[in-house]
Amino acid sequence: MKMFLPINIRIDDKKILFVGGGKIAMHKIQTVEKYSSTLTVLAPEIHEELKRKGFKEIYKEYETGDLQGVFLVYACTNNIEVNRRIKEDAEKAGILVNVVDNRELSDFISPAVFKQDEMTVAISSNGQNVKKSVEWRDKIKALLQNS
Questions:
Q1: Ordered DSSP codes for 67-108
Q2: What residues have CB less than 8 Å from 57, skipping those under 6 apart?
Q3: 123 in helix, strand or coil?
Q4: Is the dihedral of CA 13, 74, 44, 86 positive or negative?
Q5: Distance CA 116, CA 98 (A)
Q6: pLDDT tens figures, 9-45
Q7: Phi, psi dihedrals of residue 139, rounded to the nearest 5°
Q8: pLDDT confidence tier of residue 126, bands split at 50, 70 and 90
Q9: Over 80: is that where the pLDDT of 146 sits?
Q10: End-to-end C-alpha distance for the chain, whole angstroms
């Protein structure tokens, strides 16, 4: 069984790549953008809502060389073979990768997060029960906002 250690990683001025420009990428970016503005989205097509966010956009299919200078990568395509290739390429390059919706291929997972000012609450189920993680996060958020 995969185990994930909850840690905070310093990402200021680090390049974070999202391969995929659809709703899956949008969902992950909603959390990451609270902590960094140096995000790059790489995909042949990018969702209009993502375009409005103002991140660097690269319109093309993924290639191994796209990982050059990347600190973290999120494989957010709807193609499992492309996501596997991103995982393999990142592993060879020593880059941590999150293969969205596939904890077995991921080096890290993203918790359910509530951020207010400098404080962050992160809830994780070790990638086993995302729905419950979100429920717990929402309960904690409600408690903190009502106090």
A1: GTT-SEEEE--S-HHHHHHHHHHHHHHT-EEEETT-TTT-S-
A2: 21, 40, 41, 42, 46, 51
A3: strand
A4: positive
A5: 24
A6: 999 899 999 999 999 999 999 999 999 988 999 999 9
A7: -65, -45
A8: confident
A9: no
A10: 38
User: 3-state DSSP helix/strand/coil percent for the chain, to nearest 5?
Assistant: 35, 20, 50
Supply 146's token pair. Answer: 């009502």
Burial string for 69-103 (b: 16+ CB within 10 Å, else e) reads ebbbbbbbbeeeebbebbbebbeeeebebbbbbeb
pLDDT tier at 139, thresholds 50, 70, 90 = very high
6 within 8 A of 122, measured Cβ to Cβ = yes
Tokens of 57: 């956009």
Q: Quick one: tokens of 63?
A: 């290639």
